[in-house]
Amino acid sequence: MEFNLQTKPKAxxxxxxxxxxxxxxxxxxxxxxxxxxxxxxxLSVGILAERLGGQVLDTSSVENYLGFPSETGEGLMKKFQxxxxxxxxxxxxxxxxxxxETGRIKKIHTNIxxxxxxxxxILATGSKPRMLNVPGEKEFLGRGVAYCAICDGPLFAxxxxxxAGGGNSAVEAAIDLAKIANHVALVHRSQFRADQILVDxxxxxxxxxxxxxxxxxxxxxxxxxxxxxxxxxxxxxVVKIPGNGLFVEIGYLPNSGVFEDLVKQNGRGEIGVxxxxxxxxxGIFAAGDVTDMPxxxxxxxxxxxxxAALTANEYINTLKEEE
Amino acid sequence: MTxxxxxxxxxxxxxxxxxxxxxxxxxxxxxxxxxTCEDTKSFMAEMSGINEKIKLEVYDLKDDAELAETLxxxxxxxxxxxxxxxxxxGIQFNGLPGGHxxxxxxxxxxxxxxxxxxxxxxxxxxxxxIDKPIDIKVFVTLGCPHCPGAVSxxxxxxxxxxxxxxxxxxxxxxxxxxxxxxxxGVPKIVINGTEELVGDQPLEMFLDAIERL
Lengths: 323, 213
Fold this sequence. Notes:
The structure holds 2 protein chains of 2 kinds. Chain A is α/β, with parallel strands linked by helices.
């Protein structure tokens, strides 16, 4: 039996009374690394987060973070957190941002009613799973349609499941599910985007079928999912793929809705940043999956977080010179 | 069988440090067909050995049927956390709270012992206004990192308002109940058998659902 103990940060909490140099919104790799860099620069810094660790916690294994050949998502995040904790960065968890007021002192409004204040803000709110947007998907949410393989996989032990997607997340989910499910069908609208090393692992699994160039059209069933209908683009025929579970792993959407009027975003809702992680709003920086930087990877988000903190540091220094 | 290694034990000692009052861990087991009852007993014995404020009491679902009924325990293994003066807040765990769920169990112990975090004012008023019986079931799996958050929020509501009862249900141990509620994604939150939420929803979503009833 395993115990995934999550100890609360020992650092003090972020308080509404304090005006921080930098407040970081988000507790994933970008947010945590931004905190590390900002703190080391001597800034007063705090983290506001729904949950420390972010999306990486949903990843069963991480094998592409330099220095950590094989680590669980949770294990890696615990190491990140412990590192930041050593520097006693205050944290406030279990809250959601409802809006940010700009000005010399930025005011961060939250769903818990408290308003936090900082001279600079780093947005590192990450992303959430993208939906297929096909008929049946919403209706069967929690009735077969799932977005977290490590959470919901065990509920499909011995059953047939379908994984939608062709990137690393999808292939990893299919590999994990193959261990517990009777059969896994991986369905993807084009060719694999996943790392070759993962695709090779998947192809070795005996209870996995791979359907590339196949577009999911609808999720079907009565009460619970029983199959999907998909268009085989080569034969141009609609095929019926049976499965009680459909795990959607087709990428991510940025958690940027609440910042719509605050900073410029691209058509996908990603916050526009330049090479220095500056947004369209002075004193507001952004890093990680919520931004328009290409390639959503843990190592890239962490790096972007560092950049955002260093730029925020320069911004704070300029403010101090003006004073 | 021991569950907790020295490292986790040491961490737990620190985690339980802020406990203010005694908490009774009333564990209900059964002799019939229970795969995880013995494990749950051993695990709880280890937990209660870590801090003297955690008092373990082991009951049998059949032999102690009267108490089970009073505490509204219907399954085994089930754990009820009782506060000072054996006060029942309606905080229950059905199934072994291992894996990620150790976190909701810890937070339950701290809350019932009186060392929990204060509910933000925006919610406190709405919670105080709940005036009808509310039963919240939170279905979880032990490998789910979002689940303890949902369980703790439900438990917090139960702690703050005695009209609210909240139980964690480990979906694989109680698969029949999970099937009854069509659980195929966790956390799945079912309120009074009708309102359903999927995912670790913010507290206002719980309150919205309760207010819709």
